[in-house]
Design brief:
Blueprint lengths: L6 E11 L4 E4 L6 E4 L7 H7 L7 E6 L13 E5 L13 E6 L2 E10 L3 E5 L9 E12 L2 H6 L12
Antiparallel strand pairs: 1-2, 1-3, 1-9, 4-9, 5-8, 6-7, 7-8
This protein binds zinc ion (ZN).
The site of zinc ion (ZN) has 4 residues, from loops.
C-alpha cells in the first residue's frame, strides 16, 4: 500500500541539523504513527512520504520554509523585568504569551538587570533539518481517524 491522504503511517525517524547534531529520534522508543495529510508532520516530510510504502527508507534535507519557517528578528523582544514580579526567570524557560499574532510560545534567551529578552521564534526556525526515516507500516485510515483528523495509534483502535 502506498502512502496517500487515506492512510496512516508508522515510521521511525531521526532528525538532525545538517551539521549532524541530533535533535530528536523515535528509535529509542516506539515508532511514531501519523495520519498522512493531517499536517502533524512538517510539510517537507509529509510531501516526501507521499507514494512511499512499508519498508522504504530515505534521508532528506528539508529547508526552513518546508519545516519550521524562517526566523524573524521582530519576534525577539525585551520585556521589563517588573512584568515577571515574583517569578523565577532563567534563560531557556518557555511560557505562553499573548502577542500581536495571538498566543504563542516564547523562550527567555537573556536576562539583564531590568529586562528579560524573549524569543517567539520556533526553536527550529531558520534551521535546515535532515530527516532519516524508515517506514514500518502503512494501513488504511479508519473512518474515525479521517473524521478526527489524526491517527489513533498503530492499530487504529485507540479511544480518547
Ligand atoms: Zn480521534
Amino acid at each position: 500500500m502506498n502512502i496517500d491522504n487515506s492512510t496512516v503511517v508508522t515510521l521511525h525517524f531521526t532528525v538532525s541539523t545538517t551539521e549532524g547534531t541530533q535533535i530528536d529520534s523515535s528509535r529509542d522508543s516506539d515508532p511514531m504513527t501519523v495520519l498522512q495529510g493531517s499536517h502533524y508532520l512538517i510539510k517537507g516530510l509529509e510531501d516526501e512520504l507521499e507514494g512511499k510504502a512499508k519498508g522504504d527508507a530515505f534521508s532528506i534535507d528539508i529547508s526552513p520554509e518546508l519545516a519550521y519557517g524562517e526566523r524573524f528578528d521582530k519576534l525577539v523582544q525585551s520585556v521589563p523585568k517588573t512584568m515577571f514580579e515574583g517569578m523565577e526567570v532563567d534563560v531557556g524557560m518557555t511560557f505562553r504569551a499573548s502577542t500581536d499574532e495571538g498566543e504563542q510560545s516564547v523562550m527567555i534567551i537573556d536576562v539583564t538587570e531590568d529586562e528579560v529578552i524573549v524569543d517567539g521564534n520556533h526553536p527550529l526556525a531558520g534551521v535546515t533539518l535532515n530527516f532519516d526515516v524508515e517506514i514500518m507500516d502503512v494501513r488504511k485510515a479508519t473512518e474515525d481517524e479521517l473524521a478526527h483528523g489524526h491517527a489513533h495509534g498503530p492499530s487504529g483502535d485507540h479511544h480518547h
